[in-house]
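Hi support team,

I've been running sequence recovery on a batch of backbones for a student project. Most finish fine, but this one hangs at about 90% for roughly twenty minutes before it completes. I'm not sure whether the input is malformed or the queue is just slow. I've pasted the structure tokens below so you can try to reproduce it. Let me know if you need the job ID as well.

Thanks,
M.K.
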């Protein structure tokens, strides 16, 4: 197994890496188009009924050919709207649907243009009033079916009401009430559709926010549950880790009064080793607390790397010798006399890497390799141990996690 770290010979520069997410406004716009397309398809029965009324009025007025043309266009428009939800397009599906809907509106405008220019002038007063009611009703219903589409609805209203104004213009003295009605009705319906669209957009945006918040809450709960489980395991492990050296300290200290000088010195060394082990556990716990609080400090200063490596190896060597392991150190001759780094953190990293290598290696060797390449100093620890399986690698930097392997269960540790 191989693990290590790299130290730049020059002062490092921070890199600001920001990943942009989907624009919230674009997401809302796409959802508005999807809703508009669904509503337009659902509004087809109303369009069919309105078209049927106009066709009957045209036949009664003797405009059979124009009534037939109006009915044919109504069939085309209705079938077209029913097909809109099936428009392909992948990532640009909503854009294509908007384009097809706007094209459908132009055909719808042509249909109502036939009704207004070719059929409406031939209607009796009673039927003309009915026709105006049908047109106004279709515009009003379309607020809820097509209003979410934005400019498509504006085009539809302009085409329908504009046709009435143009028809009324030559006889404005007699038809000015209807022209005035349509001139006021159209803009008011457009304004209403924009209000509906704004309300729907706010509701959709709010729903997206709620969905994101719910997702975050679920993820936070899962993380909290995992952390609680890990900390429970940690408490069980740390109690064992603390109890072992404490038992050794108490036991050796109780034996000291009745021992000779040589045995006493040996027991004192054992007590010292157990105390250092306890101190290391406490230091690791304190560092973890600082990391979680975002207050882990880094104090860079000139460091003689060869001397620091010698100190670390001296601390690890007794454990390696006790297990019959060969401890090798290979230092590149090009290594600078001094580096600018934090000696405490570097010592911690090397102690952790070498300590774990010795801890999880039953036979063979542990090597510390120091190389200078490309303006960097690379420190790598290699051992002949079992290594780390792919599943455990995913949780390598998770506090309190030590993996589920039999080796991790057999070797003491707290996952820090």
């Amino acid at each position: 197994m191989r693990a290590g770290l790299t130290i730049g010979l020059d002062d490092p520069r921070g890199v600001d890496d920001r990943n942009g997410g989907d624009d919230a406004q674009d997401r809302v716009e796409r959802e508005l188009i999807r809703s508009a397309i669904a509503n337009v398809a659902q509004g087809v029965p109303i369009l069919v009924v309105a078209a049927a009324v106009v066709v009957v009025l045209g036949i009664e007025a003797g405009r059979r050919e124009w009534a037939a043309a109006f009915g044919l266009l109504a069939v085309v428009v209705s079938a077209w709207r029913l097909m809109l939800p099936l428009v392909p397009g992948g990532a640009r599906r909503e854009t294509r649907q908007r384009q097809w809907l706007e094209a459908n509106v132009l055909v719808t405008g042509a249909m109502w243009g036939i009704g207004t220019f070719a059929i409406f002038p031939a209607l009796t007063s009673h039927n003309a009033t009915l026709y105006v009611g049908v047109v106004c009703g279709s515009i009003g219903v379309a607020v809820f079916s097509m209003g979410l589409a934005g400019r498509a609805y504006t085009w539809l209203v302009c085409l329908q009401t504009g046709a009435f104004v143009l028809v009324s213009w030559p006889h404005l003295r007699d038809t000015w009430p209807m022209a005035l009605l349509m001139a006021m009705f159209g803009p008011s319906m457009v304004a209403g559709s924009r209000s509906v669209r704004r309300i729907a957009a706010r509701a959709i945006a709010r729903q997206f926010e709620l969905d994101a918040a719910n997702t975050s809450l679920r993820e936070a709960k899962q993380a909290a549950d995992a952390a609680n489980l890990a900390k429970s395991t940690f408490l069980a492990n740390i109690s064992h880790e603390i109890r072992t050296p404490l038992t050794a300290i108490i036991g050796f200290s109780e034996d000291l009064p009745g021992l000779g000088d040589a045995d006493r010195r040996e027991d004192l060394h054992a007590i010292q080793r157990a105390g250092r082990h306890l101190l290391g556990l406490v230091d690791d716990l304190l560092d973890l607390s600082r990391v979680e609080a975002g207050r882990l400090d880094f104090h860079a200063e000139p460091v003689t790397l060869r001397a620091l490596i010698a100190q670390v190896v001296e601390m690890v060597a007794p454990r390696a010798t006790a297990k019959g392991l060969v401890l090798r150190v290979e230092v590149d001759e090009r290594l600078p006399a001094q580096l600018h780094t934090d000696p405490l953190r570097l010592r911690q990293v090397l102690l952790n890497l070498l300590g774990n290598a010795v801890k999880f290696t039953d036979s063979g060797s542990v090597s510390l390799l120091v190389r200078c390449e490309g303006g960097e100093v690379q420190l790598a620890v290699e051992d002949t141990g079992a290594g780390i399986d792919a599943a455990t690698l995913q949780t390598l930097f998770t506090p309190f996690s030590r993996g589920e392997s039999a080796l991790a269960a057999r070797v003491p540790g707290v996952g820090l």
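--
Follow-up from support: It reproduced on our side and the slowdown came from queue contention, not your input. The beta strands are 2-8, 301-303, 326-331, 339-341, 365-373, 376-383. No action needed from you.
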